[in-house]
């Protein structure tokens, strides 16, 4: 029975571990706060006292953490993941983090003989629980091939992006930029309609059932239409973080992205007005404010 | 047998008339150039020497023309549509035109006793031929009710937007703005990926099969990914026209639309560089130029 | 004694007429509301019952009106300026209006034998009173030469822009765009400073006495620094009008102007929030709102 | 005779040192490449083998370096400036660097007993040679008071910005953002004029002698008008660096700066097209490219 080290038991990680257990993996979990592990221990996971301990003897490691700082903390240090990973063992980096950090970590893995794979995901906790995640994968080909069984236990489809582990992470940032720009576009259009007497909900019904039928326009669109920004599914402040990371990559790659800049500025206005904990859909409040409909 | 006057036999109109004939309507057609009518006369349509003549005795009139100037020309003047329309007869305005013109024409209809209905559509010529158009409808309720049979003969679904005939036309402009913004967003993301070694086609495959599965991201996305901008499905110059009309409405309604402005400027750059006859997807050439990938 | 017909007695026109009188011209004035003329009649001007009457026998006509609609109204119609202007008489168009209207009016003048000269100005009413206006001049060379005496009576310097009467008007719009963009730039910088504890006034003092010493950065900058937006010197709503006219010209000329679009959107937000009657400097309220410093 | 340690002998530093010598200071210089020091040693400066050696016994230290990395390198390490600075000695940080770095260095100075003063400047090498720099100053009040004699030897005026050493550096970034935005605004306006047949030089003459008479509109404006981008006075790539640093501060302070974002994207396009070594004025090439005038 192959052991998987799983680091990060937030809403996503907690939904993914049971699918690894179901698929027959032995899963050793570690988390900053131990309480989160309880339901998983019930299902058969085991507790590890540190990332390094979780990694010892594992055939794979998985990280699903909130940001660069958390991922760096889990990987580095005397009891960090890198200490425990065996030779050739793939570490599946599934968090949404910066390609820059991933590049640095990939080099640190190489030096110690383990392998970092970029493998961030699209999908919310309910998709994670249903093993319906879409997974972006990049890194050394042999490691990618070996990582398929655990990835297939967690997702519905794997999309591959070549040899550079940072590539899949860049793809994830592109996706979140596309998401933010779709929300901003709907916000502008819906507020224009509203000021001309057309209910936002009518526009949402039209577009999300015809030319934009996917989950972004349906789900975020419904929030935009109904001003339903709390509780957040995906926080506005995290949207800003991801668009900002995309812009940092754009700067490195010398690619002007005016639409990403525009989204970043609208998100920053939301943050400045205290809307960071609201859903990304709260972008529409900026459009409404600027159209003189504020008060919301 | 109810007579329908049909004005405008471009790619869209020519695909719509047969569906009216099939549904049992008598269709009198008129067009600036008569040759376009020949295949339809074969199917049973009759030729009218002018819009007014087409309209005499008709239970409905339909206009499907290229722009404001064409619609104004067909409606007004001594042999214009308004001369021939009987009392209470609905005129279905299905072109993509400015709400401003529609407001003026609606008033002219009212003064003469006929009724203007805003009824622009989403869908390309193939959808028109298959009677699969999505139709946006607004105008006086009683006329809307009466217009359902011909509309249902041409489309798969009718979305209603209240009493103001201009409303449905504004909705259509919103849709074309959403379309342009989706193409611009993909353009920026795909070029960022490209400069980091990720094929545009890989990004397109991912996004159009997961979080953005609709026809816009699939169809235009494939053109963006493959730099397949000719022949145009929807011309860049027409995209600019529509986004500009949306911005004119935004100005009237006092709604800042920074994303629409951004799209308008990118489209204008395309026009200035001689790309107006290319598909809207040629927006990606601006992104590529600005990232130093141009040959231009 | 050469007669000048002067149309438009707002703050600018009322300050300019005395300088023509001082220079020895006979001035016939007409205005929508007659009361404005009283102080000028005292100084020796004569009242005309219509633009046409003012123009009869005049060697020059001057228009200094608020917008396109006012200029069109004064020129056209049975008692309009064009009716009264003699053969070869130059009409100095000094208002801030659209090049499009000027092109049309220039053609109407040509057809009737008179000559339109574009001659808009930079400078506020106090500069007008002191005959210190900067005048932009364009139109047929011979008429420009002949118009120098009245222009020099009203301004400190004349800048020439060729044969096309619309050119000088385009130059004026460019100037007002540069003005709006300078105000927006100061607004962003001053609000950034403010949130980091640097008084706006300190930034204003630095920049307006070093690298940006001119009247725009000094005058508007002081208003931005002190949130002194009322009473308006130059209304925000007029700033929006002029930047919008510049964008319309940009569209015609196929020149993307993203900074002008940005200014237009910020100005439109101000208008939507009820700030249209404030000074252009109220742009800083948008920057403050978006940084979470609004009371809104 | 008070000793000044001077680190950084680029075009600016080399022009400033003679003024310190003239004012009666003993100046110990150090530079990455020693050759740059030769002319100054001739004038009476002495060579130091390291920043630390230069600082030993000095009453002041001055750094005038190219960027964050150079400043960090000079300050830190076993032979860095911090090693040599005596208790209470003010270090005048005159480079254009990030407030973030300055905050960190200020804390390192405090821990060792020396004092960091933010004191970046406006002015080009010729102004430095003439002791005509404008100096922005911030930091602990007592140190600011003591630093006046060397600052007055180098500049024409000192503007003070309070107790936080990072503040003056933020002010400098604001100034460079204002500069970039003025160049972008002129670029858009001049290209619009050009496409309508108005020479760029005519617009430049008008604006730089009337409402925008300062050195920015005169100097950069002349380059924009004449497409005179080489050799660079202030490199486009450095303009991008500074606007990017301003945006990083804006992000930290939660201040959306859409105009700064726009400038950054235009500058980045210039960089991507290989124009990074040209003058900042090369922004106009982006405007020209986007208007279909490329080829330049």
Spatial sequence of strands, sheet with the most strands of chain A: 3-2-1-4-5-6
CATH superfamily of the largest domain in chain A: NAD(P)-binding Rossmann-like Domain
Count of DSSP E strands of chain A?
Answer: 9
Q: How large is the count of helical segments of chain A?
A: 15
Kindly report the oligomeric state of this protein.
homotetramer
Query: What is the CATH architecture term of the largest domain in chain A?
Result: 3-Layer(aba) Sandwich
Largest beta-sheet characterization of chain A: 6 strands, parallel
Strand portion of chain A: 5-15%
Distance between the termini of chain A: 55 Å
CATH topology of the largest domain in chain A: Rossmann fold
Encode the helix/strand succession of chain A as letters: EHEHEHEHHEHEEHEHHEHHHHHH
Cα-based radius of gyration of chain A, to the nearest Å? 20 Å
Note the overall shape of chain A. elongated
Number of domains of chain A: 2
Indicate the low-confidence ranges of chain A by residue numbers.
none
CATH class of the largest domain in chain A: Alpha Beta
């Amino acid at each position: 029975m192959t052991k998987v080290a799983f680091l990060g038991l937030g809403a996503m990680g907690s939904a993914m571990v049971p699918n690894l257990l179901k698929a027959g993996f032995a899963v050793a979990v570690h988390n900053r706060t131990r309480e989160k592990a309880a339901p998983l221990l019930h299902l058969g996971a085991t507790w590890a006292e540190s990332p390094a301990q979780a990694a010892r003897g594992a055939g794979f490691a998985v990280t699903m953490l909130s940001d660069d700082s958390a991922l760096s903390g889990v990987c580095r240090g005397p009891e960090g993941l890198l200490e425990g990973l065996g030779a050739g063992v793939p570490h599946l980096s599934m968090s949404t983090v910066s390609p820059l950090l991933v590049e640095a970590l990939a080099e640190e893995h190489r030096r110690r003989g383990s392998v970092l794979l970029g493998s961030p995901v699209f999908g919310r906790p309910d998709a994670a629980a249903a093993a319906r995640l879409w997974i972006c994968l990049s890194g050394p080909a042999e490691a990618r091939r070996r990582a398929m069984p655990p990835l297939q236990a967690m997702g519905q489809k794997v999309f591959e992006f070549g040899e550079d582990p940072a590539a899949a992470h860049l793809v994830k940032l592109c996706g979140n930029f596309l998401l933010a720009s779709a929300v901003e576009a709907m916000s502008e259009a819906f507020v224009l309609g509203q000021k001309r007497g057309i209910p936002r909900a009518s526009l949402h019904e039209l577009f999300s059932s015809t030319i934009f039928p996917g989950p972004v326009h349906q789900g975020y669109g419904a929030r935009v239409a109904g001003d339903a920004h709390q509780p957040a599914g995906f926080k506005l402040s995290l949207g800003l973080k991801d668009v900002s990371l995309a812009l940092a990559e754009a700067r490195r790659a010398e690619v002007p992205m005016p639409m990403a800049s525009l989204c970043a500025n609208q998100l920053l206005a939301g943050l400045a007005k205290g809307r960071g904990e609201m859903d990304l859909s709260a972008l529409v409040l900026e459009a409404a404010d600027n159209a003189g409909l504020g008060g919301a």
